[in-house]
């Protein structure tokens, strides 16, 4: 399953096969596909991530966020959209600030490369069996 953050990109989990010395591992790992069209980031490069078509992508669940945060849904929606807009404007102005996603990772820019760096705990939380393999390939 994946989650779309309109104006920023899509988070998803993908399954990949990795060949070890004696066995093949099938691991789940997180990916982030940047919404390049919305951000208009000509001066940056970013890793090309393709989310397979069989993964269901859903929009961010503002109702659930509203319940968890105790803020009205319209406040949560406005806050998320304004934050994405502010980040996009900062990137366009050449300000390469990290965008932190709690318990997931950091969207960061270094040497004009914009990429998502997932926290090891996020990766190992998805896959305990082959966590080292998943970590190495993320």
UniProtKB/TrEMBL annotation:
GO CC annotations on file: microtubule organizing center
Record-annotated membrane-spanning stretches: none
Xref: Pfam families: HU-CCDC81_euk_2 (PF18289)
InterPro entries: CCD81, CCDC81_HU_dom_2
Source species, domain of life: Eukaryota
CCDC81 HU domain location: 57-129
PANTHER family xrefs: COILED-COIL DOMAIN-CONTAINING PROTEIN 81
The protein's name: CCD81 protein
The species this protein was found in: Probosciger aterrimus
This protein's encoding gene: Ccdc81_1
